[in-house]
């Protein structure tokens, strides 16, 4: 790798993620990609999140990257959050999401005080779109802010088109279908599949989301955890509209060593060597990996159906059950049913080393909730997907995977739920449906083979994008140059009005 100039080594990027796994994980990954090109990178976090991410950052520091975590006390209590609730995945109820955002915004003043003492002085802020107050923080510090989008170009476009055309408001019921206008693909939605903020009578997060959008337009640039070769039409569209729109991903490919793939986001609930050995014993591309991210909640009834479906597919599988979903009822069922003794799979109760597992050659399919990070990780691993979106922008990702990229099949969910509405029986997906979708994806026929081939090709393109000289590598360099140029301009501006910089 080319040696960075002294000027670049003096740049200091201040990264501020929303305290949620799907924001901290990609920003920490991106911190490594940035630091490999020379700058100093600091990631703002909270004490409990710092413990989770310490091993990754320590590993990066041992590799001579100038990365540090800066923990700041989280003002959760002031906003009515329970003790220790410093991450969205620790929210006891989705109704507290608004309180969580309020607590995040109280971080602005302490970060400003801290930033003024940092050496070298921060040159810019990179923050996720959910933190609009970081724009005024950047203004107070007289540095540019870059928005780090944790969603795809396709999602951004869907959201833009719907906000402008309001085609979804013309349908009479939540289950009536409509087509998304102005895209080269024929994409059909129902209103119930749209994020809550797009639906009528949406909850009180709507005002937060509107504020975010408004503030976003003041940013200096936009970073997307994607790569240009994935969806060129959608990337080009955004480039025409936004200044400084750069795809800098897939950031999950920042990991080079096994240790980095394990310490990602949490302590894993499984011995990775056991897991790898088990995978080694399986045929290539034969295992189904099943995981629903860090926020989806599944009821015991739904978990039993997933268990039945995976077993009925008669294929080897790894199934992740989130800590918070692993209730006494689920434990009792697994034991009384002697489920784990009977199945051809492994059940992991808690956090899994997802990127490590997905990148094993035995994995042949990924049953996913379509969170953007998980989707990207599936793409990078060249693993086709069985899509099971639930809420937020997950249906956009399903359409992208199935209709645009053509690397997946649907489990067949028609309606989106609201975050926190999982108990509603209408959302139950039966085991038979799950088994059928798994078998459809794993089918040896022409269609299954075409999906696998496309998935392999995209994975190769993703890897090339992140290598030195690849599109995302070059875009990261462009970002660094932009920050350098901004720094120079600020100097000129400050001198011209007689201020010291
Ligand atoms: N993840 C993981 N192990 C788990 C569950 C999730 O490593 O057991 C990671 C996953 O690799 C991804 C992130 O958590 O990077 C989840 O982000 P995503 O955008 O997919 O979904 P969300 O959690 O926002 O629903």
TrEMBL record:
Assigned EC number: 2.4.1.-
Source taxon at top rank: Eukaryota
Matches recorded under Pfam families: UDPGT
Keywords, ordered alphabetically: Glycosyltransferase, Transferase
SUPFAM superfamilies documented for this protein: UDP-Glycosyltransferase/glycogen phosphorylase
Entry-linked CDD domains: GT1_Gtf-like
Single GO term (MF): UDP-glucosyltransferase activity
Enzyme class, broadest EC rank: transferase
Family classification: Belongs to the UDP-glycosyltransferase family.
Name of this protein: Glycosyltransferase
Natural source organism: Oldenlandia corymbosa var. corymbosa
């Amino acid at each position: 790798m080319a040696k960075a100039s002294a000027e670049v080594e003096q740049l200091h990027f201040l990264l501020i993620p929303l305290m949620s796994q799907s924001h901290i994980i990609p920003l920490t990954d991106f911190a490594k990609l940035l630091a490999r090109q020379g700058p100093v990178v600091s990631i703002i976090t909270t004490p409990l999140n710092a413990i989770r991410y310490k091993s990754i950052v320590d590993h990066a520091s041992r590799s001579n990257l100038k990365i540090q975590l800066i923990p700041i006390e989280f003002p959760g209590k002031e906003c009515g959050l329970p003790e220790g609730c410093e991450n969205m995945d620790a929210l006891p109820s989705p109704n507290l999401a608004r309180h969580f955002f309020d607590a995040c915004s109280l971080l602005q003043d302490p970060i400003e005080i801290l930033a003024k003492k940092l050496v070298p002085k921060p040159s810019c802020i990179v923050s996720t779109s959910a933190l609009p107050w970081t724009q005024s923080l950047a203004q107070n510090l007289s540095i540019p802010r870059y928005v780090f989008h944790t969603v795809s170009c396709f999602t951004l476009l869907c959201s833009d088109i719907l906000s402008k055309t309001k085609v979804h408001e013309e349908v009479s019921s939540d289950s009536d279908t409509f087509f998304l206008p102005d895209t080269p693909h024929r994409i059909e939605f129902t209103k119930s599949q749209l994020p809550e903020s797009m639906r009528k009578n949406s909850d009180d997060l709507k005002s937060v989301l509107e504020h975010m959008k408004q503030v976003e337009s003041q940013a200096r640039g936009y970073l997307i955890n994607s790569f240009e070769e994935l969806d060129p039409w959608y990337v080009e569209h955004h480039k025409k509209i936004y200044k400084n729109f750069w795809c800098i991903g897939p950031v999950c490919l920042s990991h080079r060593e096994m240790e980095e793939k394990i310490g990602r986001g949490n302590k894993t609930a499984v011995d990775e060597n056991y897991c790898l050995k088990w995978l080694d014993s399986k045929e290539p591309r034969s295992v189904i990996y099943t995981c629903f991210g860090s926020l989806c909640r599944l009821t015991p009834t739904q978990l039993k159906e997933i268990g039945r479906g995976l077993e009925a597919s008669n294929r080897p599988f790894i199934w992740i059950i989130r800590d918070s979903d692993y209730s006494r009822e689920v434990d009792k069922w697994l034991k009384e049913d002697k489920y784990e003794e009977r199945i051809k799979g492994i059940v992991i109760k808690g956090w899994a080393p997802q990127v490590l597992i997905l990148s094993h050659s035995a994995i042949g399919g990924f049953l996913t909730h379509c969170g953007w990070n998980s989707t990207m990780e599936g793409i990078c691993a060249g693993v086709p997907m069985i899509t099971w979106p639930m809420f937020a922008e997950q249906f956009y990702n399903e359409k992208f995977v199935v209709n645009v990229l053509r690397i997946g099949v649907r489990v067949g969910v028609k309606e989106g739920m609201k975050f926190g509405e999982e108990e509603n029986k209408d959302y139950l997906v039966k085991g038979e449906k799950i088994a059928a979708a798994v078998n459809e994806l794993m089918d040896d026929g022409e269609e299954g083979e075409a999906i696998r081939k496309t998935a392999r090709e995209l994975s190769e393109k993703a890897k090339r994008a992140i290598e030195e000289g690849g599109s995302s590598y070059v875009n990261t360099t462009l970002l660094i140059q932009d920050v350098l140029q901004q720094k120079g301009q600020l100097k000129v501006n400050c001198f011209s009005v007689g201020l010291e910089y």
